[in-house]
# Entry
Amino acid sequence: MPANRCPNPSCEYFNRALPNNAKVCPWCSTPLGNVVSSTPEPSSQPPPNQQQPSQPPPSQQPPIQYQRPPTNQPNYEVPQQAPVDHSTVYQQRVYYPPTPPVYTPPPQRAPVLKLIHTTGREFNLVGEGGYIGRRSQSPGIAPPEIDLTGIPSEGIISRRHARVDWDWSQNSYMIVDMSTNGIYLNNTSLTPGMQYRLLNGDSLRFGQDNLVNFTVYVV
# Structure
């Protein structure tokens, strides 16, 4: 005779053998049936083959592409540069005529005035003008440009006996008598304060006694 069993799956006495005369389960008070079928035995026939979805072999599965998670940073676009033209472009050069050099004439220089004494001593005028005379014995007084100190009979000559200057308009040296004993040009007495031309080869005499004589040379 089959044993009574509790049919309540949540009961402690589920599927346990109970007394045959028990009507309810002593634990959960579930009514008991006369016969409780035992646990069905598994069928000896194999279950029908269930087709499982075919999966490609691991080597044939497509690779998983990694996607960068979105960010809140702005998307900066790289500015595109204009294409560089490396071809050589030849431009015609503008011809500028050469500027001729400006001719600067050399500065004009006055010729040299020379006085040759009868003793052969030579006196030159440095520059375009100056005085003819003797050096003063007093300190602080500049000597004349043509200093006749040391010639014979120098006492006839004054400290500032005459003044000579180059005159560009006359293109010659001009002499002015400033002495007390006088000057004779080619045996002609000069008027004090007046200008007279000195030409190459003129004779120049200082004083009346014919003691100091010179020959004029303009070179």
Summary: The radius of gyration is 74 Å. The CA atoms of residues 48 and 97 lie 111 Å apart. Confidence is low (pLDDT under 50) at residues 35-39.
